[in-house]
Write a structure and sequence with these properties.
By secondary structure, chain A is α/β, with parallel strands linked by helices. In chain A, 37% of the residues lie in helices and 22% in strands. Chain A has ten helices and ten strands. In chain A, the strands form two sheets. Chain A has a six-stranded mixed sheet with strand order 6-7-8-3-9-10, with helices on both faces. Chain A has a four-stranded antiparallel sheet with strand order 2-1-4-5. Classes of the chains: A alpha/beta (267), B mainly alpha (282), C mainly alpha (271).
Chain lengths: 267, 282, 271
C-alpha cells in the first residue's frame, strides 16, 4: 500500500533528517512512529504528501510514485492522503462545516469552493462525519469557539472527507489532556478500522501508542531502529531510541491497561 | 483492542442527522437579519452609483493630461537637483529644522499631557482637561491650523513650527495615555508601596514600562512631522512645500521629481533609523 | 551599573564615568542642535507680527463670529463631494493595495528577489508623499476637480493600506495554510481558505481606519483645487470672508467627528 525506498531528506542547513528510510505498510495497518524530538518523525510524514520535499529516494502510494509528481498530479495524490495536525490547524475564522468541507477542496473547482456551493453528496458526508464524532450540533459554530478535543475531531473529519487511502497523523494528542488524548486516539483507530485505512501516527506518548496500534516504528537520527509489535518495546529498545532513562514506569502492563479501561467506561 | 463504537458520542444525535441529510448547507450569514442585510446591500449600491454619477470627469482634459503625466514619470529618470539647487536646499533645510524643533517641543509638552490624560494615574478634573486638549488637537488638521496660524503670526517657519508642535501633542499624548492605561498595575503598585512620592512613582513605576513605546512613537511622529512639513509651504508656513508648489506651477517636472525623490529618501532614512533605535531600546 | 570605592565607602552609580560623560555629551549636542534650529526659525520670523499676534487674533475672532449660518445651504454639494472623494478613493486604493500587499509579503510573494522590492518601493513612494502633494501633481496633469481628489486620496492610501496589510499577511499562522495545502487544494483555493480568512479582520480594520483618515484629508484637498469643501474654504479665505470661514471650519469639524464615530461603530461591529 505505502512503500518507502531509501527516502532521504537533507535540509539546506546540512541536517540529515531522514537517512535512507525503507518502510512497507500494508493496507489497513495502523502504525505508530515514535522517537525523540528531532528524530525525523514529522519530516517523514511530511515527505509523503510533500509538504516537505524529499531530497532522495522514492515513495509509493499504491501504484503512484510520489516524489516525482508534477504539481497538478501531486494535488491529485494529496487528495488520497488525509492529514491530521498537532495543533489541529483548523482555519480558526471559518465555521466547523467549512473546515470539514475544505477537505473536499481537491475535488471541487475554485468558484464552487469560493461560493461554498459544494455538491450535496459532500455536504451529506460532512454531516455524517460530524455526527459520527458527535459534533453535528456544532456545525455552524466558528472553529475558534471549540475546545481542543472538539477541534481535533473536526480535524479528523476534514481528513476523512477527502476519502483518503492513507492517513498521516502528526502528534494528534500533544496539545490535549490525557483523557481527551485517549478518546481521540481511540476515535482515529476505530475510524481507520471502519474504513480499512492505513495510518501513520507520530506520537510522543509511548504508552498511548502501545495501547492502540498494531505496529511500532522507532526512529532515531533519521533511521529506523525498531520495527515490530508494541509488546516488543522493552526498556532496552526504548533506551536505544530515546537514551538512558528508567523505562519501567512508562511501559504499559496488561493489568494496568485493563483496569484503566474499566475506569474509563464509567464516565 | 476492539472498542465499543459509541464511545465519543455523548449526544444521541441520529435523528438530527436524518433531518439534516439531503438538506442544502449555506454558510451562516454575517448579518443574520435578512431585511437588514438587503437594506445595507442595496443602500451601499445606490450610494456607489450616485457617487460615481456625480463625479464629473473631463475625459478630454484627462486624455490631454496623459502626455504630461508621462513627462512627469519620465522626469523621475532625470531629476534636476541643480537648476533650483539653492531653493531646494533652503526649503529642505527649513523643513528639517521645523521637524526637529516641533518634535522636541511637541514631545516635551505631550509627556505631561499624556500623563494627565491617563485615567489610572491622574485625578478626574486633570483627566478631562487633558483629554479635551487632545481631542481639539486631533480634530483640527495640520493644514487648517497652519492657515489660521499664518493669518495670525504671518508667513514663515514659525507658523509651521507651531502647527507641527500642536499636532504632535494630540498624536503623542493620546497614544502615551493609552499606553499608560494598558500598563501592568502590579509593577506600579509595588513602587507605590515603598512610600514613593508621586514623581518618584512616575519615575520608577510608570516610566520604565512606557519608555520603549514612547521612544518608538516619538521617532514615528518625527517621521510624520517631516512629511507634513513638506505641505505646510503650500499655505505659506515654511518648508519645502513652497518650492514644490512653484515647480508644479511652472511645469518644471524635473525639479518636482528631484524634490519628491529627496522626500522619499529622507522618509526611508527616518524609517531605517527608527527600526535601528526601536531594536535597541526593546 | 558600577560600584565605586570612594574614601573607603562603596557607592553605587548607574553608569561608568565614561558612559556618563558620553551621555552628557549627547545631550549637549542635542541642545546645541535645537538651539541652532530655533535660531534659524527666529531669523526668518518677523517678530513684529508675532508681538502683534494677540491683537490680530482678536480681530479675526471678532470678524469670524458669528458664523454665517445661511451659507450652509451652499455647502451641500461640496460636502457630498468630500464624502465621495474619501469613500471612492478608499475603495480604489483597496483594490490596488491588496495585490501589492500579497506581492510584498514575504510568505506570499512570487519572487523575493525581484517583485518584492518593487512592491516595497511602490509602498514607500506612495506613503512618503502627502495626499495634498499628490493632488497638486494630479491637478497639473489631469486638471482640477473631484476626480483629481479621488485619485490623490487613492494613490496616497495604497501605500498605507498595503503596508499594514502585508504586515498582517506575514503574521498569519502557517500551519493553517499547510493543512489546506495538504488536502490537495489549488493555489487559489489555498489563498481563499487558508490565507484570506486569517487576514479578513485586519483588512476590515485597515479599510475603516483609512476611510476615517481620508475623510479628514479630503476636507482640505480643495485648498489646491481638488474638489470638496476645501474649495469653498479656499475661496472664502481669498476674499477674507471670515464668517464663512468659521462656518466651513465648523462643518469640517463636524464631518471629522462624525467620521470618527462611524468608523468606531463599524470597527466595533466587525471585531
Amino acid at each position: 500500500m505505502v512503500r518507502l525506498e531509501k527516502l532521504t531528506k537533507t535540509y539546506k542547513t546540512g541536517d540529515q533528517a531522514l537517512k535512507a528510510v525503507d518502510l512497507d505498510i500494508p493496507e489497513g495497518q495502523v502504525l505508530a512512529l515514535i522517537g525523540p524530538s528531532g528524530a525525523g518523525k514529522s519530516t517523514l510524514i511530511r515527505c509523503l504528501n510533500r509538504l516537505v520535499e524529499p531530497t532522495g529516494g522514492k515513495a509509493w502510494l499504491g501504484e503512484t510514485e510520489l516524489t516525482s509528481l508534477s504539481q497538478g498530479r501531486l494535488r491529485k495524490a494529496r487528495r488520497r492522503i488525509g492529514m491530521i495536525f498537532q495543533e489541529y490547524a483548523l482555519v480558526e475564522r471559518l465555521t466547523v462545516m467549512e473546515n470539514v468541507l475544505s477537505g473536499r477542496l481537491g475535488y471541487v473547482g475554485f468558484w464552487r469552493s469560493f461560493l461554498r456551493r459544494y455538491p450535496q453528496k459532500d455536504v451529506d458526508e460532512a454531516f455524517r462525519l460530524l455526527d459520527r464524532v458527535g459534533l453535528l450540533h456544532m456545525a455552524d459554530k466558528r472553529a475558534d469557539e471549540l475546545s481542543g478535543g472538539q477541534r481535533q475531531r473536526v480535524g479528523i473529519c476534514r481528513a476523512l472527507i477527502q476519502d483518503p487511502d492513507l492517513l498521516l497523523v502528526d502528534e494528534p494528542t500533544a496539545s490535549l489532556d490525557p483523557k481527551t488524548s485517549r478518546q481521540i486516539m481511540r476515535l482515529i483507530v476505530e475510524l481507520c478500522q471502519e474504513r480499512r485505512l492505513a495510518a501513520i501516527i507520530n506520537i510522543h506518548d509511548v504508552a498511548l501508542a502501545q495501547m492502540f496500534v498494531q505496529r511500532v516504528i522507532g526512529l532515531e537520527f533519521g533511521s529506523v531502529v525498531f520495527d515490530g509489535a508494541p509488546d516488543g518495546l522493552t526498556p532496552d529498545v526504548l533506551t536505544q531510541i530515546y537514551g538512558e532513562e528508567d523505562w519501567e514506569a512508562t511501559i504499559q502492563k496488561d493489568e494496568g491497561r485493563s483496569s484503566e479501561e474499566v475506569e474509563e467506561s464509567a464516565w | 483492542m476492539v472498542m465499543s463504537v459509541d464511545h465519543v458520542q455523548n449526544l444521541p444525535s441520529h435523528s438530527e442527522l436524518k433531518y439534516m441529510l439531503g438538506r442544502r448547507w449555506r454558510k451562516p450569514r454575517f448579518i443574520k437579519r435578512s431585511w437588514l442585510r438587503w437594506l445595507l446591500g442595496v443602500g451601499a449600491l445606490i450610494y456607489l452609483i450616485a457617487a460615481v454619477m456625480t463625479v464629473e470627469v473631463n475625459w478630454s482634459r484627462v486624455y490631454e493630461g496623459l502626455d504630461r503625466g508621462w513627462k512627469f514619470v519620465s522626469a523621475f529618470t532625470s531629476p534636476d537637483f541643480v537648476s533650483r539647487g539653492s531653493d531646494i536646499w533652503e526649503g529642505m533645510l527649513e523643513s528639517l529644522i521645523m521637524t526637529v524643533t516641533a518634535s522636541v517641543v511637541g514631545i516635551a509638552i505631550s509627556i505631561p499631557i499624556g500623563l494627565g490624560a491617563a485615567r489610572n494615574i491622574s485625578p478626574l478634573p486633570v483627566y478631562l482637561i487633558c483629554r479635551g486638549i487632545v481631542a481639539i488637537s486631533r480634530a483640527l488638521q495640520e493644514i487648517i491650523v497652519a492657515i489660521l496660524l499664518v493669518a495670525i503670526f504671518g508667513f514663515g517657519p514659525l507658523a509651521g513650527f507651531l502647527t507641527l508642535s500642536f499636532a504632535t501633542i494630540g498624536f503623542l499624548s493620546k497614544l502615551l495615555a493609552e499606553e499608560i492605561e494598558a500598563m501592568s498595575r502590579v509593577q506600579a503598585e509595588a513602587v507605590r508601596a515603598t512610600g514613593a512620592s508621586w514623581l518618584q512613582w512616575i519615575n520608577y513605576g510608570v516610566q520604565p514600562q512606557v519608555m520603549p513605546r514612547l521612544i518608538g512613537l516619538s521617532i514615528y511622529r518625527m517621521d510624520i512631522n517631516f512629511r507634513e512639513s513638506a505641505i505646510l509651504g503650500l499655505v505659506g508656513a515654511g518648508g519645502i512645500g513652497a518650492t514644490l508648489n512653484t515647480a508644479f506651477d511652472r511645469y518644471e517636472y524635473d525639479t518636482a521629481a528631484a524634490i519628491l525623490i529627496l522626500i522619499i529618501v529622507i522618509v526611508m532614512a527616518f524609517e531605517y533609523l527608527s527600526g535601528v533605535i526601536r531594536a535597541r531600546v526593546q | 551599573m558600577v560600584t565605586l570605592q570612594k574614601e573607603g565607602v562603596m557607592s553605587w552609580r548607574r553608569r561608568t564615568t565614561g558612559r556618563a560623560l558620553l551621555g552628557w555629551f549627547g545631550w549637549l549636542m542635542g541642545v546645541a542642535l535645537f538651539m541652532y534650529c530655533w535660531q534659524q526659525i527666529s531669523a526668518s520670523t518677523t517678530w513684529f507680527f508675532v508681538w502683534d499676534a494677540p491683537r490680530v487674533a482678536e480681530d479675526i475672532w471678532s470678524r469670524a463670529t458669528p458664523p454665517r449660518w445661511e451659507y450652509i445651504a451652499k455647502l451641500g454639494r461640496p460636502i457630498w463631494d468630500t464624502l465621495n472623494i474619501a469613500t471612492l478613493g478608499t475603495l480604489i486604493a483597496l483594490c490596488f493595495a491588496v495585490p501589492v500587499a500579497f506581492l510584498a509579503a514575504r510568505n506570499t510573494t512570487p519572487s523575493a528577489l525581484f517583485i518584492r522590492p518593487i512592491a516595497l518601493l511602490i509602498i514607500v513612494s506612495s506613503r512618503s508623499i502627502n495626499s495634498l502633494i499628490w493632488a497638486l501633481l494630479l491637478i497639473a496633469i489631469i486638471g482640477p476637480g473631484v476626480f483629481a481628489g479621488i485619485a490623490a486620496i487613492a494613490i496616497r492610501s495604497i501605500g498605507f493600506c498595503a503596508k499594514l496589510l502585508y504586515e498582517a499577511i506575514e503574521e498569519i499562522d502557517e500551519t493553517q495554510v499547510e493543512a489546506i495545502v495538504a488536502t490537495g487544494a489549488s493555489r487559489w483555493q489555498v489563498m481563499a481558505y487558508g490565507i484570506v480568512p486569517q487576514i479578513m479582520p485586519a483588512f476590515a480594520g485597515i479599510a475603516v481606519f483609512r476611510w476615517d483618515i481620508n475623510i479628514r484629508e479630503s476636507t482640505v484637498l480643495g485648498l489646491v483645487g481638488a474638489g470638496g469643501i476645501g474649495l469653498q474654504l479656499s475661496a472664502s479665505l481669498n476674499v477674507l470672508a471670515w464668517p464663512q470661514v468659521s462656518l466651513i471650519l465648523l462643518v469640517i469639524l463636524a464631518a471629522v467627528v462624525l467620521g470618527e464615530w462611524v468608523s468606531a461603530k463599524i470597527r466595533g461591529a466587525i471585531i
